[in-house]
């Protein structure tokens, strides 16, 4: 077994020239390979390799956090969790993730399908593109993976084995536990907010006892409620799109956690896209884009609910809420009551997770391009301040908010302030 060595544009062809999976997808003639490093995420190397017969993506983990450097070591085993999460997502929501061609655990690399002409969803939303299928595709993906990875559906022996397998993804969980739930609410070392115009609101949020208590309750739910196999980092930078196709990528943060986490993180990213639109109006107003983004949140939630309910009625084969207790005794209403309770809990917790996700993307280490690419600092700070206010409201008042229309009405009011 060769020791781990990071690939580079210069070494990739020599290192992987004999890899059968790669050669079968792009062609054997390495002299005709064209290699580009395109990783723009916080953690890994990502290469696009083109040959005479096609193209593929080679993703390799580094033994440290790329965004920070080797002062922050991070285990290579995240590549193992990403590979195993992708295989499960493909089985549970076929066609929703890139095809995997090869996995090399020692080199922490995954060779996978090159998605083209797909672009990262976040970039599309910043450009003002309205993708017609994302709400439906992502809603179905979340319902199918989150339902089918849980004790509602799986044989409990298999679910417990997966729970144990993914339990070792501790370092990546630790990143989320600190960066999402704690750091934004105190003067943590790696925090940054680029606009001094935000200082006052940041001080207010850090002095906000109700918010801090809520963030810690959410952290507790995140860490202790091992309901299902999560994607774990389902934001708009982890989704690739065309007008007709949507694929989820990058599930290296996968672990057993609460259903509401993926849903909340995802919707938070649509709400942040909404609040950032004002900063991208140099080529024209974004009113219809704003309306589109709110519609996307409504449809995503609705598709998620509908599909989850459908699976509840047709695929509830696990040890939770067994049919023998309900339908088999003619008690269909009992099963529906239990479903309503579960969806209500997901709704309430989803809002909380969404609120803290908004905060950490503006105040913590890992920012997002929706706000970062707004050149005018005052305008950017205005957009960010509104998003922070919105995030605080939905996190703290999540038990008193009853519909997504209510959330969106509030978002629209804050945005127009
Ligand atoms: C140090 S990693 C920072 C962030 O990047 C990843 O994409 C996750 O969102 C993580 O929180
Ligand atoms: Mg990622």
From TrEMBL:
InterPro entries hit by this protein: Aminoglycoside_PTrfase, Kinase-like_dom_sf, Methylthioribose_kinase
Gene Ontology BP annotations: methionine biosynthetic process
Molecular function GO terms recorded: ATP binding; S-methyl-5-thioribose kinase activity
EC number per UniProt: 2.7.1.100
SUPFAM superfamilies: Protein kinase-like (PK-like)
Signal peptide per UniProt: none
Domain called Aminoglycoside phosphotransferase: residue spans: 35-276
Keywords annotated in UniProt: ATP-binding, Kinase, Nucleotide-binding, Transferase
Similarity remark: Belongs to the methylthioribose kinase family.
Record's subunit section: Homodimer.
Name of the protein in question: S-methyl-5-thioribose kinase
The species this protein was found in: Mesorhizobium mediterraneum
Lineage of the species this protein comes from: Bacteria, Pseudomonadati, Pseudomonadota, Alphaproteobacteria, Hyphomicrobiales
């Amino acid at each position: 077994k060769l020791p781990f060595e990071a690939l580079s544009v210069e070494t990739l062809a020599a290192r992987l020239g004999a890899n059968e999976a790669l050669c079968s997808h792009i062609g054997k003639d390495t002299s005709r390979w064209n290699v580009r490093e395109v990783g723009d995420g916080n953690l890994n190397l990502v290469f696009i390799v083109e040959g005479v017969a096609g193209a593929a993506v080679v993703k390799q983990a580094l033994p440290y956090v790329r965004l920070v450097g080797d002062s922050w070591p991070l285990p290579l085993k995240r590549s193992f969790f990403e590979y195993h999460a992708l295989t499960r997502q493909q089985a549970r929501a076929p066609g929703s993730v890139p095809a995997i061609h090869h996995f090399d655990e020692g080199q922490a690399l995954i060779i996978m399908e090159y998605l083209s002409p797909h672009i990262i969803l976040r970039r599309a939303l910043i450009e003002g593109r309205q993708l017609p299928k994302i709400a439906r595709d992502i809603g179905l993906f979340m319902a199918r993976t989150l339902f089918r990875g849980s004790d509602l559906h799986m044989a409990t022996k298999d679910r417990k084995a997966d729970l144990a397998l993914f339990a070792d993804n501790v370092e990546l969980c630790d990143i989320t536990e600190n960066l999402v739930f704690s750091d934004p609410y105190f003067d943590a070392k790696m925090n940054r907010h680029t606009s001094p115009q935000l200082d006052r609101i940041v001080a207010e949020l850090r002095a906000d006892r109700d918010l801090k208590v809520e963030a810690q309750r959410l952290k507790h739910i995140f860490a202790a409620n091992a309901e299902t196999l999560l994607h774990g980092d389902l934001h708009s930078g982890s989704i690739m799109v065309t007008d007709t196709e949507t694929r989820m990528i990058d599930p290296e943060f996968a672990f057993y956690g609460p259903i509401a986490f993926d849903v909340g993180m995802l919707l938070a990213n649509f709400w942040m896209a909404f609040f950032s639109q004002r900063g991208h109006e140099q080529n024209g107003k974004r009113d219809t884009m704003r309306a589109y983004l709110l519609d996307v949140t409504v449809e995503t939630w609705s598709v998620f609910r509908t599909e989850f309910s459908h699976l509840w009625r047709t695929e509830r084969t696990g040890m939770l809420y067994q049919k023998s207790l309900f339908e088999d005794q003619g008690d269909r209403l009992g099963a529906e009551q239990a479903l309503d309770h579960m969806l209500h809990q997901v709704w309430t917790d989803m809002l909380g997770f969404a609120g803290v996700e908004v905060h950490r993307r503006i105040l913590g280490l890992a920012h997002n391009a929706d706000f970062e690419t707004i050149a005018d600092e005052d305008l950017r700070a205005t957009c960010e301040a509104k998003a922070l206010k919105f995030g605080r409201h939905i996190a703290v008042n999540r038990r008193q908010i009853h519909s997504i229309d209510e959330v969106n009405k509030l978002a629209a009011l804050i945005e127009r302030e």
